[in-house]
Amino acid sequence: MKIDGQLYRSIWLDDDGSTVVVIDQTRLPHKFGTRKLRTVEEAAHAISTMVVRGAPLIGATAAYGVALALAEDPSNANLENAIMLLAGTRPTAANLRWALEDLGRRLRPLAVEERVAVAYRRAAEICDEDVAINRAIGENGLVLVEEAAESKDGTVNVLTHCNAGWLATVDWGTALAPLYMAYDKGIPVHVWVDETRPRNQGAALTAWELARHGVPHTVIVDNAGGHLMQCGMVDLCITGTDRTTARGDVCNKIGTYLKALAASDNDVPFYVALPHPSIDWSLADGAETPIEQRDEDEVLTITGRDESGQETKVALTPAGSRAANYAFDVTPARLVTALITDRGVCDASEKGLLTLFPDRAAEAAAS
Fold first, then answer.
1. Are 314 and 350 spatial neighbours (Cβ–Cβ below 8 Å)?
2. Which terminus, N or C, of the chain has the lesser number of Cβ atoms within 10 Å?
3. Rounded to an integer, what is the distance from CA 24 to the centroid of its chain?
4. Angle in degrees, 0-180, between the axes of helices 76-87 and 55-72, rounded to the nearest 10
5. Known active-site residue 347
6. Can the peptide bond before residue 74 be classed as cis, meaning omega within 30 degrees of 0?
């Protein structure tokens, strides 16, 4: 994607071929900046503090984190320590575990002198694969936007939650990829952007992305979505997901479940866009998904830009008040109209997923 005319991915290698560079998402939307990661500890810190976020990008960063660790020490012990450190950073995102399992499986059998080159190569492959996956999600989801455009006169209004754009992936994004493609194709689209408290990934990141690309959008408070649907102002919802179960339950940023309920009550299609590494085939029931609880300070305070242009952190609540900060919720498959994957669109069900992933069906039959 482009920022002020320059092409970017969200993660890349520096000119030295070993340092990892990421866009610092904690500084957006007021400042665009990057951060260099030179150690596995810095990679883990970037993930846990949400310098990088979004399930696919977390997985890619973790893969490079393993490479950074092995560049210092390629021993068996250090490999296992790096995987353990990175695995503990964000427990909900399925891509994190997927990437670490992939790296571990490939690296453990190798001689120590081979590991660094293989780790860097595989991390780069994961990034390239993610771009291709998200492009395919965009193409498959574009069909749904086109169908919505054909069924009405005027603009297609889409509601999204959190940030599932290119900042959450290596490029293109998941939920936003179909909208970028629709806009580029000349389809009139408008995006309702949930602010997504408490970290405001919608207001800060999705709005920033869409503005840079020129896509018409309007930021709304999180509780406005139901009203807009009641008033016929939303044609479809598309969100991303950090983990999808084998039966089609989806775990995404807190507040997604409420949007799905409102969509169901108002007959608004509710789609979830996901890359296949976000599917947790070992998990059937979404209620078993580990839900991350983050620091209460994210709820009790907020950071913004004052009239002088300076970033300022302010308190939102009375002194002494406590806060609960659940980062995700689970939307049952029954509330999801369809899943948009890199292999196609399917029902949110075990049967639906297996029609697109017959290799998983074969494995299940064999076991």
1. no
2. C
3. 15
4. 150
5. no
6. no
**C-alpha to C-alpha distance for 120 and 129, rounded to whole angstroms:** 14
Does the structure show a pLDDT above 90 at 366? no
Q: Are strands 34-37 and 20-23 parallel, antiparallel or unpaired?
A: antiparallel
Residue type, 313: K
Q: Do 337 and 264 contact (CB within 8 A), yes or no?
A: no
- Using CA atoms, how far residue 47 sits from 65, 71, 86, 180, 326, in Å, is 10, 19, 8, 26, 17
Which residue in 235, 242, 249, 342 is the catalytic one?
242
- Work out the pLDDT band at 95, boundaries 50, 70, 90: very high
- How far apart CA 116 and CA 35 sit, in angstroms, is 22
User: For residue 306, what pLDDT band results from cuts at 50, 70 and 90?
Assistant: confident
Cβ–Cβ under 8 Å, residues 161 and 250: no
Residue 2 has what pLDDT? Answer: 79
Q: How confident is the model at residue 362 (pLDDT cuts 50, 70, 90)?
A: low
Residue 272 corresponds to which amino acid? Answer: V
pLDDT digits (tens, 9 = 90+) for 155-191: 999 999 999 999 999 999 999 999 999 999 999 999 9
Q: Which of 137, 144, 142 is nearest to 337 (CA)?
A: 144
Q: Which two tokens stand for residue 95?
A: 């891509």
User: Hey, what amino acid is at 172?
Assistant: W
Q: How confident is the model at residue 361 (pLDDT cuts 50, 70, 90)?
A: low
Q: What is the pLDDT of residues 181-224, one digit of tens each?
A: 999 999 999 999 999 999 999 999 999 999 999 999 999 999 99
Tell me the β-bridge partners of 192: 159, 218
DSSP state of 206: I
Instruction: Measure the N-to-C terminal CA separation of the chain; round to a whole number of Å.
Output: 42
Provide the b/e sequence for 233-250 (b: ≥16 CB within 10 Å): ebbbbbbbbbbbbbbbbb
Phi, psi of 339 (to 5 degrees): -100, 130
**Phi-psi sector, 275: left (phi>0), alpha (psi -120 to 50), beta:** beta
Tokens matching residue 224: 């406005």
